[in-house]
């Protein structure tokens, strides 16, 4: 059996989370059109009779400006240290030179597959240019074009990954899909809705903390704090007469119900915690290690 750790690296918005979900056939990682949606390393486990791939989605690689972003980059680093294969994901339409510089700077010691994403919205000529560009790079063991969104060429990608995975016994039970707790995904689903519903900086100043999670006979009761940095952000989150937070709650609850497969009672509170993104203690409390 082939077993090993595969990490998806790439710049913000390359489509890492979309690829992770497409390979898993399940939505584990949250996705949004905004950059820096992913803040943690998220592990998904794919087990078949022939292989176990332990896939990691990582935050987009950036130059950190505040402590939260430093933590995000530490998540990238820790994923780097225990991978057998790296997927270097690039949006076919992004700046290739900048993407390549980042891949080079990772100084990966493991085989790297350059994965060109978003081929569904890329012209043939442009794709040829991208292939030629990465094909000549020394870190590129293998080159493959996909569309994570449309699910194109994913079998080919899996076959390419398997070529480089070592033989070994599975690390996880075949039934397990992730090593992260349910609460984590619930908080992420709320966070995803914030990325969709609120404009500009709001999602970047916000985090979500699950404070209560109780399975009752007919439903699961979930209470969460939405943490922001300033009073003005709290006002925006709530919206006029609480309109926005109500919408957020309804949308998040629907996703959580589908995820848990049972009815959910979701209660949301907005808390102001000045400068939480730069506070080591609060970052820990909110799950950023
Ligand atoms: N057209 C097209 N869009 C895609 C594809 N893959 C991802 N996207 C879109 O690109 C955007 C970013 O996708 P994500 O999966 O959140 O990207 P990410 O790399 O995880 O982003 P960060 O969290 O910023 O690191 C979303 O709007 C996706 O729907 C693709 O193959 N084709």
Summarize it.
With 289 residues, the protein is α/β, with parallel strands linked by helices. The protein has helices spanning 16-24, 67-81, 96-106, 124-135, 154-164, 182-197, 231-238, 243-260, 280-285; strands spanning 2-10, 42-47, 51-57, 85-91, 112-117, 140-145, 207-215, 220-228, 264-272.
Walk me through what this model shows.
This protein has 9 helices and 9 strands. The chain has 2 domains: about 1-165, Rossmann fold, CATH 3.40.50.300; about 180-285, GMP Synthetase, Chain A, domain 3, CATH 3.30.300.20. Helices cover about 35% and strands about 25% of the residues. By secondary structure, it is of the alpha/beta class. The protein has a 6-stranded mixed β-sheet with strand order 2-3-1-4-5-6, with helices on both faces. A 3-stranded mixed β-sheet has the order 7-8-9. The site of guanosine-5'-triphosphate has 24 residues, from helix 1.
